[in-house]
Write a structure and sequence with these properties.
Blueprint (H helix, E strand, L loop, with lengths): L1 H10 L15 E2 L7 E6 L1 E3 L5 E10 L7 E7 L5 E8 L5 H8 L8 E6 L2 E7 L13 E9 L8 E7 L11 E5 L5 E3 L1 E5 L1 E4 L21 H11 L7 H7 L9 H22 L1
Parallel strand pairs: 2-13, 3-14
Antiparallel strand pairs: 1-13, 2-4, 4-9, 5-8, 5-10, 5-11, 6-9, 7-8, 10-14, 11-12
């Protein structure tokens, strides 16, 4: 099949890669300095029944666009289950492929849930007008957190290579030029997080404004900026910032946040003794 062949050419390009974990907003998953493709997963709260939706967006793409992209989302099967995946970005490739050959139905966007991995492939051998070229929401993952997950407890949706979370793994992304030459792209990602909310507001940890699972001075700075209307918070960040749970952000929330941080430090000191 044409789409499969195009994908195979990009996936088998043989580019060197590495995985760099850290505190940066993105994790670099490819070493070569080719055009960049960035994948960003939502950080979101589940509803009161544990159901969640997490959108993966294409935040950055090469000017050429992509004709093939293959990767996986790794997750803890003890924490959640994936129930569905819905494509949100329709380039017209699927209909065009089917017009060319009815047997190609369903070959452009494919996914499979297996052993703690959600495998994703998007590929087409059509002209560049049908490639992934726009920075927008790509697809939506739907699932449910297990009942055993405690309230406020986050679990990660980690972007990895299609082969899994190996040290030398690489997310395959690229395109074919007019001569049939394969060009692979450096791939950067921001992993997603899903949590069971503390309450109906969707909060996961009061005071954690940057949603990194910690309460730090950086969160206090963000709180001040939000109160001064210098910064717009996401729904999840706002829920965490509203420490008084009154639906408003005020200096009272800052004071309560600082008291919580002081309590955290006291607990850390006692544990260290």
């Amino acid at each position: 099949m044409k789409a499969q062949k195009a994908a195979a050419a990009v996936m088998a390009a043989g580019f060197m890669a590495y995985s760099a974990l850290g505190t940066a907003p993105f994790q670099v998953l490819a070493a070569e300095k080719e055009p960049v493709a960035a994948l960003v997963l939502d950080r979101t709260a589940a509803d009161t029944d544990g159901h969640f939706e997490a959108t993966l967006s294409l935040d950055q793409l090469p000017e050429t666009g992509l004709c093939a992209l293959e990767f996986a989302i790794a997750y803890d099967t003890a924490a959640l289950g994936i129930t569905d995946v819905k494509l949100l970005y329709d380039t017209g490739a699927q209909k065009a492929e089917v017009r060319a050959n009815p047997k190609l139905a369903g070959t452009v966007f494919q996914f499979e849930v297996r052993n703690g991995l959600l495998w994703i492939r998007w590929a087409t051998a059509l002209d560049a007008e049908y490639w992934l070229r726009t920075e927008q929401a790509f697809f939506k993952v739907e699932g449910r957190l297990k009942d055993e997950m405690p309230k406020g407890s986050p679990t990660e949706l980690k972007l990895v290579s299609a082969a899994g979370d190996a040290a030398d793994a690489v997310i395959a992304a690229g395109y074919l030029d007019a001569d049939g030459t394969t060009h692979s792209c450096e791939t950067v990602v921001r992993n997603g997080i899903v949590w069971k909310p503390i309450d109906e507001t969707g909060a996961t940890m009061y005071g954690d404004i940057d949603l990194d699972g910690r309460r730090t001075v950086a969160d206090a700075v963000l709180m001040h900026r939000a109160i001064a209307e210098e910064l717009a918070l996401s729904a999840a960040a706002y829920a965490n910032a509203d420490c008084e749970t009154d639906g408003m952000l005020t200096m009272s929330d800052v004071s309560l946040m600082l008291r919580i941080m002081e309590h955290d430090r006291e607990d850390d000191t006692q544990e260290a003794r």
